[in-house]
Design goal:
about 800 residues; mainly beta; 7-stranded antiparallel beta sheet; 5-stranded antiparallel beta sheet; 9 helices; about 15% helix; globular
């Protein structure tokens, strides 16, 4: 059995199967050399608890891919169960223990045949082998097992991941075997109401009693799982739209300082469990909250806010008072408060409505005084439990990294890292990866051993629970509802509080009180359709911004988000006529002839599509398993597309050329470059992209033949559009109000002023962006974010 397992695993080479490097005998004792895996078995991960559907799909997809690889080599596992499935600390799933594996002769002659013989001892018909509760009916009857037997076992494992209970279980072995042969497991809706119908159907199809009625290959299962993993997991079409809308809104937040926004506006609501959740308002001025923490004694709070359009400032307020007192720290954001009452602040020269990039990390006394600078380029920080050192996040050499102490890297990623929070005992740090879009929650010890909790939905903030055994954060549920949730670090998530509006938790005290924020954004659109016209307010609902403008300046593609929940896109004439709704989801661009819109998450579930502006049907765009980014552009005069796409296998994002709806994506850039504005030149030969924003100059990459060029003197500039001469581009100075638009020469880096953009009244305006223009800039549109109501609440009763 030992030799059989070693040799069976040794012929396999797949990331979801345990790698075997050597088999032999030493001094009469057999040995096998396998890869070292750090993590725990799926059984330990389950511990009687159900996974969220999205987490279960992530694990199940990897298991199915591993089985497909084994089956392709003619190997049937025959003992698939949670104990034989291992989950590494970085989220990879490995199938273990091929001790019962049977090799079938399915390979074609001459096709890399293995020398491993078919094993028959102990695997003949009539001999029952496997683990009760996960064996297929044919295994229970002692009949030959084939790949479809593994598929039945796979279904039993997936059922347990979704329900927290075994699919087949009896008081005795005979009862369990009878259940496998004659009974169906309870409906998943009885154990976990969040399971979508599409996922339930996959489970049922795997658990058919007859092998002929099941999936016939693990590859088919992987295909179906991958399809539903790319679609919103919701109970109905409206829930799916809300989920896509939430994902769309967060990029708006990142670009226009809305990311610090949002929370429920209710003074009293019932919690899901017993008891009452109460809200007490703590701030009463008009503006935006950036960061907030309890003071060490829990009797007061310290927070940073921009009130009435003024720059960010640090305030303190007692919980038994309605007054806030400024501490004298201007242009600063509160990142953390130590146990001894020392503040960690981020100070920036231009710091308006909320967190908007790296700053100078400084420490300052809570009572007021002069901040002392510590480090540059820091975006987020948190004091250790002892209050002597800080964990920080920043970007360095193209990578985001978490450091503790400052200078020692614990974790690095191409995705954005932020919001580090020390556990109450100081032994672990929780942080966010990939925010503010698709977010993972990371947990690391102080040696850098990291475990990721895949969330997939946007997460803005997090905090440790009162006992320190859970992480609390905001997210979107599979139903599309917005909520505060608690995660017990083993993948079990429970709902703390549901809300029709977003909730963001800033801090949690040891006695269970929480600081949350309410925010009502205002994002308006201004447009001038030609050089002779005047600017008109063409906004629609509270949140709207321009996506594209036609070459003649007469039509505007408008993205609209209503009530922070539903996203849709409209085509609007710039003469002020009411807009026409084209679809739900996010719009990226308009073709030169105005006939098609490039959209994501529209009525093509979870996909990328061309949406007609007139009559006709949507056309799905092939992505070959790659995930859609946040922006995409047509090549002028064509339906060819330039778009960032993420490879979920490598976690790398590149900018690709997609040559029509069915074309194969072709990479144009190395990883980690991003597009903004009209990145594609008017002749369709070049794209201008950026990386690291503040740290590097812009780059120009060819679409086809040509050499990459670096644009000198372009750091801190946001590409808007190409100038008709093809030798220069229009750029915006990040953070400027009004927005200063320049013409930048690509060869020399020479900057020339073009115009300033902003609404007639700049009072309360905290950001301007999303600029689109006609060729040459005679017509243009932009969006501005005006500070609205952002309030802190003391919340009690969360359990």
């Amino acid at each position: 059995r030992f030799e059989q397992e070693a040799r069976a695993a040794g012929v396999l080479n797949h990331p979801n199967l345990t790698a075997v490097y050597d088999v032999g005998t030493h001094e009469g004792a057999p040995y096998v050399v396998q890869e070292l895996l750090e993590g725990e078995t799926l059984r330990a991960r389950l511990a009687g608890d159900a996974f969220t559907p999205r987490r279960a799909i992530g694990h199940a997809l990897q298991i199915a891919q591993g089985l497909a690889a084994a089956h392709a080599k003619g190997i049937v596992h025959r003992d698939l169960k949670p104990e034989n499935i291992f989950v590494t600390n970085d989220g990879r799933v490995k199938i273990l223990d091929f001790g019962l594996a049977k090799l079938t002769e399915t390979e074609a002659p001459g096709a890399n045949q293995t020398s491993l013989p078919t094993q028959s001892r102990g695997t003949e018909p009539g001999i029952v082998m496997g683990t009760l509760g996960y064996m297929s009916p044919e295994q229970v009857r002692g009949k030959p097992a084939d790949p479809r037997s593994d598929i039945f076992s796979f279904g039993a494992v997936l059922y347990e991941m979704l329900s927290g209970k075994r699919a087949f279980h009896g008081d005795t072995a005979a009862d369990t075997m009878s259940a496998i042969l004659t009974r169906e497991p309870p409906d998943l809706s009885e154990t976990n109401r969040r399971v979508p119908e599409s996922l339930d159907r996959i489970v049922r199809h795997c658990l058919e009693k007859s092998p002929e009625a099941r999936f016939q290959s693990a590859s088919d299962i992987a295909f179906d799982l991958e399809a539903i993993s790319e679609a919103p997991l919701a109970s109905g079409p409206q829930a799916a739209v809300r989920s896509r809308a939430r994902r769309l809104l967060i990029p708006v937040a990142a670009a226009l300082a809305i990311a610090a926004a949002a929370a429920a506006g209710y003074f009293l609501r019932r919690s899901p469990g017993p008891g009452v959740v109460s809200f007490k308002r703590l701030t009463f001025q008009r503006g935006n909250i950036a960061g907030a923490r309890f003071t060490p004694d829990g009797a007061a709070i310290v927070y940073s806010a921009s009130w009435d359009g003024r720059p960010l400032e640090v305030f303190t307020a007692r919980l038994d008072s309605v007054e806030s007192t400024p501490l004298g720290y201007r242009g600063a954001d509160v990142l953390s408060v130590s146990r001894s009452g020392e503040l960690a602040l981020s100070v920036r020269e231009r710091f308006l409505g909320g967190p908007s990039g790296p700053g100078t990390l400084s420490r300052a006394p809570l009572a007021g005084g002069v901040p002392r600078q510590m480090a540059e380029g820091i975006e987020f920080a948190d004091w250790s439990a002892a209050g002597k050192d800080l964990a920080v996040t920043r970007m360095s050499q193209g990578r985001f990294q978490l450091e503790y102490p400052i200078g020692k890297v614990l974790y690095a990623s191409a995705r954005n890292i932020g919001m580090p929070r020390f556990s109450r005992d100081g032994s672990r740090i929780a942080f966010l990866v990939g925010f503010p879009v698709s977010t993972d929650v990371g947990i690391t010890d102080l040696s850098g051993k990291v475990e990721m909790i895949h969330e997939a939905e946007p997460v803005a903030r997090l905090a440790w629970s009162p006992l320190g055994d859970e992480v609390w954060y905001d997210t979107t549920l599979e139903s599309g509802e917005l909520a505060l949730v608690a995660n017990n670090l083993r993948g079990r998530r429970r709902v703390l509080f549901r809300s029709p509006d977003p909730l963001i938790v800033h801090d949690v005290s040891p006695d269970g009180r929480a600081l949350v924020e309410r925010y009502k954004p205002e994002l308006r659109t201004m447009c001038r359709h030609n050089a002779a016209g005047s600017e008109l307010d063409l906004g629609w609902f509270d949140i709207s911004f321009p996506v594209a403008i036609s070459a003649d300046g007469e039509r505007l593609l408008l993205q609209v988000v209503s009530s922070l929940r539903d996203a849709s896109f409209y085509l609007r004439r710039t003469n002020g006529e009411p807009p026409v709704k084209l679809g739900n989801g996010g719009a990226f661009d308009l073709t030169t002839d105005g006939q098609w819109v490039l959209a994501a998450g529209s009525d093509v579930a979870g996909g990328l599509a061309l949406v007609p502006t007139g009559t006709g049907s949507e056309v799905a765009i092939a992505r070959k398993g790659l995930e859609v980014g946040l922006v995409g552009k047509f090549l002028p005069g064509t339906r060819r597309i330039v778009i960032p796409l993420r490879d979920p296998k490598t976690n790398e994002t590149r900018i690709y050329l997609v040559d029509g709806p069915t074309g194969v994506p072709t990479p144009l850039t190395p990883p980690d470059y991003v597009m903004t504005g009209q990145a594609v030149s008017h002749d369709g030969r070049w794209i201008v992209v950026s990386r690291n924003y503040e740290e590097e100059d812009l780059s120009v990459f060819p679409i086809g033949q040509g050499e990459r060029r670096t644009v000198p003197n372009s750091r801190g500039l946001e590409p808007i559009d190409w100038h008709p001469d093809g030798k220069s581009i229009f750029v915006g100075e990040r953070g400027s109000i009004p927005l200063r638009v320049l013409q930048l020469d690509l060869a020399t880096g020479r900057r020339a002023p073009w115009r300033e953009l902003g609404p007639p009244s700049l009072s309360g305006v905290i950001a301007i962006g999303f600029v689109v223009m006609t060729p040459g800039g005679a017509g243009y549109a932009y969006a501005y974010n005006r500070a609205s109501t952002s309030d802190l609440f003391l919340v009690e009763g969360l359990r």
